[in-house]
Amino acid sequence: MTMERRDVLKLGAAATVAAALAGCSKIASEVAETPDALPLPTGDVTPELRVLHRLGFGPRPGDIARVASMGLAAYVEDQLAASQTEEPRLNLLLSNLEIFSIDSEDMMDIHREQVIAQLQRANLLYAVYSRNQLQERMTDFWLNHFNIYAPKSDDAWRLAGDTRKVIRNHALGKFPDMVKASAHSPAMLDYLDNTVNKSGVANENYARELMELHTLGVHGGYTQQDVMEVARCLTGWTIEKRFLHRRGTFRFDETVHDDGQKGVLGHIIPAKGGEADGDRVLEIVSNHPSTAKHISAKLCREFLGHEDAGWIDKMSTTYLSTGGDIKEMIRPLLLSKEILASPPIAKRPLDFVASCLRATNADSNCGPGVIDHLTKMGQSPYLWPMPDGYPDKAEAWTGSMLGRWNFALALAGGQIGGTSLDASRMHDPLEDVLGRHRSNKDIVEQHSKRLPNDQALALCLSSPEFQWR
Description:
With 469 residues, this protein is mainly alpha-helical. It has 3 domains: 1-37; 40-168 and 347-428 and 448-453, no CATH class; 174-344, no CATH class. Helix content is 53%, strand content 4%.
């Protein structure tokens, strides 16, 4: 697997910018002379570095030595437990966000754009600062799996609760519990139009995505008739809006529920079941073999970068035998030799930005200064309009490279508001940022030591090696 010449030439352009700022035109000229293809980093990636990138958002200074000291297996178990006390800096930054202290209905007084900005900031703060990195890796994974577009209707004000109660609370729990929590989420019910799903005029949007995206998968064996029947089962699942009731919470409205008999995936759901019709649907789809396979395949892509038939079978079996226990599904994979030997996985923009801030030990409030760069790269949290979430394939992000280089230059040069680092105090940007994640012949190693620290740092962050995890 290689980068095409045009991509390498773009790297040369970034290096040219960095070198030109330092007045090193000769180095810039040499860097721009690239081969037809640049092999991806392979053999000299240390196990500790690979695991830190796969389980989380990359190492902070000292993390590689810490993981090596405690051992890979102990580190994996520590991250699966997700019980590390968060550092005070993270708690302080999060406490300044109103979305965590105000009820969703009371939050309506805050402008939508401000709420979305706080949601995005919190998302990145957790990725950068949390000690429970696997928890955050999985939170990001499930946020895309159960994607909700913040600007739709009143969803922006509901998403803080959805992220906490549906995603983060269940990220390493049991998948059927997360499906059930999502199905009761006012944000999801509104986003996929189940609030207008009524007897006689059933709306199929949520029913379809529940099966196609959330559980069974597009080839999961359901039919259009199943979609229609699931929609009937979910009539009346809506949001509380009545006076003197707790507005903005889940409500089952029996007056608009279709109480007739239904048939879903070969199961008969008797008439007059009321709210239990929806509960039965969730039970059927969450425990279906197709769901086990669909979720296992996505987890393979997340941690291995591709769908491995053997691991899909293993995890599917575990899913069905444990009731969808996510920890038990991924534990053997995270401890496997395959995770160390698998090809590099392209970092999406959020991964890249978080890993830059972690690798450089930057002090950042993850506010507009950082989010603006992330937006230019094409991955603003909570702003993917389709229910399938941001794509996980490398080719989807080939157009974001210029934005990455601009971010690297701005970060190294201290030009991002609310973010600071002192590149001059770094002992060796090449070693501090890339570690052993490089080839001895790499252009970065050839030239970074001849640049001032800030430009060497930008070059390291822009290098092909740092675009992969």
